Amino acid sequence: MRRAEKEKELRAWGMSDDDIKRMLGNDNTEDGGFGVFPENWRVFEVFWRVKHQWHVVVGNSGVFYQGLRYPAVESVLRMLKIDDTEDIFNGLNIMELAAKKVLNED
């Protein structure tokens, strides 16, 4: 997927221009931006589509994100007509673990 197509899709999801620039990076990496490698774009796309589908526990000690709701992940994979579900799911698990570390920080 070309950069212009990625930008258009991210705008359709409601992402701001600044967030798109940070997500896709630019020619000047001095600003701390980062990009998504083409081979990881599909995994990111699925992760972005299920970003609100977390099992969350709320208690006296606060909010704890347990993990993504896998039925929602399965629905997104089916709706996007993704065939290589095992590879995407493996990549999604890596992103999920990294996100949990950030989301569950005190």
Structural overview:
This protein folds into 2 domains: 35 residues, no CATH class; 69 residues. Helix content is 53%, strand content 12%. It has 5 helices and 2 strands; from the N terminus they run H-H-H-E-E-H-H. It has a two-stranded antiparallel sheet. The chain is globular, with a radius of gyration of 15 Å.
Question: What's this, in brief?
Answer:
This protein is an alpha+beta fold. Helices cover 53% and strands 12% of the residues. It has a two-stranded antiparallel ribbon with strand order 1-2.
Give the key terms.
106 residues, alpha+beta, 5 helices
Side-by-side strand order of the widest sheet? 1-2
- The 3D shape can be described as globular
Task: Sketch the topology as an H/E string, one letter per element.
Answer: HHHEEHH
Let me know the average pLDDT: 85
Helix content: 40-55%
* Distance linking N and C termini: 37 Å
Main sheet: strands, sense, barrel = 2 strands, antiparallel
Q: Approximately what portion of the residues adopt beta-strand conformation?
A: 5-15%
Using the CA coordinates, give the radius of gyration. Answer: 15 Å
Query: Which segments are poorly predicted (pLDDT under 50) over 5 or more consecutive residues?
Result: 27-31
Count of DSSP strands: 2
How many independent structural domains?
A: 2
If helices are DSSP runs of H or I spanning 4 or more residues, what is the number of helices? 5
Secondary structure category: alpha+beta
